[in-house]
Amino acid sequence: MTKKDEVIQLLEACTEQERLEVFQYLRKTIPIHAIEAKLNTQAEVILEAIDRASDLTLRGIRGIIAEAAFLVEVLGKLEGWKDVTPPGDAAYDFLIEDSISRINIQVKMQRKESGEPKVRNGKYVVETQRTRGGKDKATGLPTRPYRFGEFDILAVSMHPSTNDWNTFMYTVGSWLRPRPSAPELIEVYQPIPQAVNEDWTNDLSTCIEWLRSGTKKTIAPF
What we know:
The protein is an alpha+beta fold. The chain is built from seven helices and twelve strands.
């Protein structure tokens, strides 16, 4: 039996309180994540700060978690593709490439209302506009709306309704519904069916096939 096995055996014989004390002892020298060094504080303090955050701040944090989950659980398992996302603030969150072409992807969170998944006419909702507003210096037009062509695929984290950070729904960016008063802009609220259909899929590879097929259409309304 190795020393590690002996330690594990001893830990299994300990009470929950004793194991907690051992963990706290180890935490003095073993960081959980590199961000502890970056912020010069322990993960426990960072998590406590997040727990005290406002709803607006938590909404932003959930969006960041969705992006991280997409990177690790979706792109990390997508065979034949490479993440080539450049640094900087683009209209998309991820840029990937294979031997054929590059595709950019925007990740959004399923919309919640009063703490519950927002539903309109039996469909879930995603808000497709930038978090921060502003105006283009050259044109004077608002920069918060997305324009068609700014991203190829929309990936929506369905965590609010599934409680699973690895669940996403996908559609082609050009299939999204336009604003009636400005058809070059993407409508703010887009409908998501509660099950996979001909407009939305839960498989990124399928959505890539849809994109490359060149099919022109608009997803069904609410």
